[in-house]
Amino acid sequence: MSAAHEPAAPGAQEGPVADLGSTAHLSPALRSDIARLEAARIVPTVRAHDAETADQLARTLWDAGVRAFEFTATTPGWRGLVARWARREPALLLGLGTVTSASVAESALEAGAHFLVSPFQVPEVRQVTDAADRLFVEGGLSPTELRAAALRGVAKLFPAHVGGIAYLRSLRSVLPGARIMATGGVGVETAADWLAAGAFAVSIGRELTETDDVPAALARLREQPAARTNA
Asked: Does 70 qualify as catalytic in the annotation?
């Protein structure tokens, strides 16, 4: 199937998909959130055993200047967290990760999440985000999976550490222009290497949020030219 006959992406406008780097076929809302992710470059994943701890981690990130991060559906009380942060910090680009069902997707969007993230392909979540015109960063590992997700906006390479940076470079060579967020095994000391290799953005979890000094870790990230982050 040629690019011109790809299924319509969420918020798609009429006309062929010129290339994987194009956003012309996407709605203004999706293009806006994609641009904000690109500006952030580093998207922390806030995962904890309880909502209070997750909220404290999020506050630490916010106070350190981070303006894009995601909670996860594996954290107890995640819906309340999403609703609270969406309400009190409207400048935040807020996501929910580990979204693997339509019911969780619907609840997350109702609570105020701007984008959803999955670790693998979830067709039923696509239907929810398509209907709501919201960004879905769908996970994949193979070139086929990542191409399909990239056509819809942003693809998530997971687990990134399996193939490593060399694999990302290989993907970029056959998927030129694809917006690929690397997740899984990306750390504070290696984030810039992933970005320099062509990652559209990287997501960092416990390697960042479980450090003794999160602001200092963020400062190290920002000192690396390849990170180019204002998050």
From this structure: yes
